Amino acid sequence: MPVNRRTALRGGAIAAASAALVATARPAFAAPAADPLKKIVAGYRELQTGINRPSPERTAALKNLGRVAKSYYDGMSVSGNGPLWTDLPLGPGSDYTTSMYARLRAIAVDWGTPGSTLSGDPKVLDGIKKALELIYASQYNPRVGEIGNWYTYEIGVPYYLLHTLVTVADQLTADELARYVSPIKRFVGNPNLRANNPKVVETGANRADKALISIVSGALTGDTAWIRTGIDAITDVAGGGAASVLAKLDRAAGDGFHADGSFIQHDTIPYPGHYGIVLLTALAGTIHVTEGTEYALPDELTQKVYALVGDTFAPFVYAGALMEPVRGRMLSRQGETGHDIGHQLTVATLVLARSATGTVKTELSGLAAKWIKEGTYAPFLEIPDPERFAPGPDLVATPGIEFAQEMLAGRVRPAPIVATHRIFGQQDRMVHVTEGWSASLGVGSTRISRYESINGMNLHGWHVGDGVLYLFLPNAKGHYSDAYWPTVDPALLPGTTAKAGPPGPLAATPLTTKAHVGGVRWDARHGAYAMDFVSEDGSLTAKKSWFFTPAGIVCLGAGITDTSGQAVRTTIENRNLGENGRGTLLADARVVGDSSTLHRPRWLHLDHVGGYVLLDNAEVTALREDRTGGWRDVDTGANTKGTTTPNTRRYQKLVIEHGAKPVDAKYAYAVLPGASVAGTVASVLAWRVRANTRAVQALRLWDNTLLANFYSAGTVDEVSVSGPASVALGRDSLAVSDPTQLQDSVRVTVRRRTVEVPLKDTFGATTVVSLR
Q1: What are the tens digits of pLDDT across the range 391-418?
Q2: Which of 127, 388, 396, 488 measures 20 to 30 Å from 617, CA to CA?
Q3: In this predicted structure, what is the pLDDT of residue 18?
Q4: Could you read off the pLDDT of 449-507 as tens digits, one per residue?
């Protein structure tokens, strides 16, 4: 095991000192792990310190990581009863406790990693032991009460403490281990329930985290019953399986994984881009540490875990980053951009691939290899700044690099890009993937919240669920990671229709009053999506549709009506061009200045981004501006807050003006990602809009396929429906979904033939009917 390698690397006095310390009745977790408890501890240590696989990338990462760990160590004072760090004061319910343990964890793991800056230094070890005692006595022991966020006491601090303890476990006595684990026992002794409120049954990522914490804590202290409780918590044995983290819910919303691949946390927030990955990481860790022991998960469960990667997470990864619509409030975290969490997904996938076999191993390795290959904006094998883009969930993360290189040495073929149009009705999300670009939507409904803004995060999130169209382009892989959220105009997000006035106060997890949100999948390259939109204050309403094709997205809006008296705008584009970004904007072949009003343009083209075709008469405002903001503007969380450092980014805005108090206003335009000027001009007459009203919005494709969103009973061309529906009609088949998720069935009349399409309990999924 790597701990043996680490011990072997120490020479002379260090080795002698270590031998003397071990002589005082220690559990010797570094010994060959025939004992399942020692195997669990050694396995969890491996996830912190790695496998000592040498490479230039590992050496470079260790140098940068060691720089941070040494700065924490040099700034740490363990004399007296004062704080360990002057900027992290002690005290009951301190907002800084998590940061204390995080810094100590960085020092400890660097100390325990072969070849690192602090590796094996006895003075550093002495400092770690004294710091453990000081924080235990003053901040985290069985007698403290939970003040503030429960998560700090029941998950956040326990994880960092365990990372530290497993790394130095061979240097602590059994009594010392029991002492430092005792507060974890108090707060996570029963991983099924919330310690500060036992009426709360843990679900999703929180349950998986507590399960792994219980397993490792039990192994450290020899508490086999606690280990078993942790294993049983995964499938909720105590609750009869009701809160199993591997159960597939077949309904809209609700915490956990869903039958259609959705993942939700906090009951109404799509979270494959954070909590889902936290859960996956905990499950991967559980499989890793228990493998080969009597506590190993049954093969049936491990296969379910492996399948989650491709079903729930992979569809929302672009260039190694998670897409914004599935990241909830975490999009405002400076230290957790889409690329950061994408690295965490990659690490979890690599850990799972190490235990998988056969085709499953090949598939998991292929996905990880693909994300590593495509993630050029934040290279996975590099850690230039240890607090950014570190492979793994925490600061010190050389294991991710080592696991990746171990996998890549097997000449794994990266998974190919496969055209995909997929609708996740149980979390009101969709994704459209082409070989050249991808897209997704941020929406809200009566089932799924517009946004989440809690714990001081996502402070500009007013409109992220109002129909944001996210475009992911190969030449702008860092678009949303490059200080986007602190600098973008939050009232003019692409795809949204919004008022110009003050946005009003933020809520925590607000739902809308409209159930009609969803769409239909025609094939891997085509689909339609609809949203019955109402603003949070209820004054602005609109019917909004998006029709997805390989060439681009046709965006339709109708019934745009507002009573507030404020100006109403629909944003075609608001592109982050980067710091001092350039790129010519053309409108009908003329160069557009930094600020222009365009009267009924036919087409627009933005260099390095793509084209835009106006499909009806519209007044368009084009504005190029520099915007400045700090991450602290969007995140003031106690342990997540961003810096106040100003970031300036240049944006290109394209906005359709609807004026004040519009009644039944409309818009129609096509977005052509990556299109050339010639391609944009050539497509001006290619789009056939068949309807754009309050009742129905429809588009006819080049092969005569009809895509239509009906908001009520109605007719367009040769199709009539009895109620709300999204419909795709081809020559021999009909695809139908119920975006409201409220109907038992809908009658569709096509070419004088009426079909009753059953939709009960389909939760927005597409039903295909043959017309042959």
Answers
A1: 544 555 799 999 999 999 999 999 999 9
A2: 488
A3: 31
A4: 999 999 999 999 999 999 999 999 999 999 999 999 999 999 999 999 999 989 999 99
Sign of CA dihedral 41, 45, 47, 48: positive
Say whether 275 is catalytic: yes
Residue 768 DSSP code: E
58 close to 49: Cβ distance less than 8 angstroms = no
Exposure class string for 200-218: b at 16+ Cβ within 10 A, else e: ebbbbbbbbbbbbbbbbbb
| Residue 329: active-site member | yes
Q: Which helix (H) or strand (E) holds 49?
A: helix 36-49
Q: What is the dihedral of CA 484, 486, 489, 493, to 10 degrees?
A: 50
Q: Say if CB 678 and CB 695 are below 8 A apart.
A: no
Question: Which of 10, 329, 429, 447 is the catalytic position?
Answer: 329
Q: And the tokens for 158? A: 């326990």
| Gyration radius of the chain over CA positions | 27
Instruction: Look at residue 287 in the predicted model and tell me its pLDDT.
Output: 98
User: In which residue are the tokens 């700065």 written?
Assistant: 71
Environment class of 12 (CB within 10 Å of its CB; exposed 0-12, middle 13-18, buried 19+): exposed
List the catalytic residue out of 103, 266, 526, 649: 266
12 has pLDDT over 70: no
Helix, strand or coil, per DSSP, at residue 547: strand
Instruction: Please give the domain boundaries of the chain with CATH numbers for all domains.
Output: 36-410 (1.50.10.100), 420-690 (2.70.98.10)
Q: Which of 101, 136, 140, 275 is catalytic?
A: 275
- Taking the C-alpha atoms of residue 50 and residue 47, their distance in angstroms, rounded to an integer, is 6
